[in-house]
UniProtKB/TrEMBL annotation:
<protein>
    <submittedName>
        <fullName>Uncharacterized protein</fullName>
    </submittedName>
</protein>
Amino acid sequence: MERSTIKLEVSLINKIKEIQALNCYKSVNETVKHILPQGTVTPEIVTYEQPAFTLKSGDIYKNISWSELKLNFNCIFLNQTYFIKK
């Protein structure tokens, strides 16, 4: 089982302990499992990559990231290799 340490405000700790005592939960983990709704997920951190370049068509701008560029290059390379082998 993976473990982690989190820092909580004292007021939150006291509320968790109160809920734990009222419901006879044995651990903080058990208490938190009952407090959080089923299916609760943490939001994923979104990071934006610096674009390699920007394409412009009229009023429309399209940023092309390095990842997209590498992916498309690999697809083109694989397609060319495929046709050469045939």
